[in-house]
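Note to self: keep these together.
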Amino acid sequence: MNASEVCGLIERGLAGAKASVSSEDNVHFEAVVIAPAFAGKRPLQRHQLVYATLGSAMGSEIHALALKVYTPDEYASLDRG
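Structure:
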């Protein structure tokens, strides 16, 4: 599985989500996910929502996934300067 495929699974699985996924070896991934569904959710709940979009790939094709998860408002207010 490659980064583009992981990104597609996340974006199709979470309504309105935007994801950016990278990987150097196609088994260890890093993702930034911005989704309205994260509003009012704790970090663990947000991660669980993302994992649910990946199904059985988590732990098999995807060995590790480092996540940064934001609502659209949280992401817009980040100081990325």
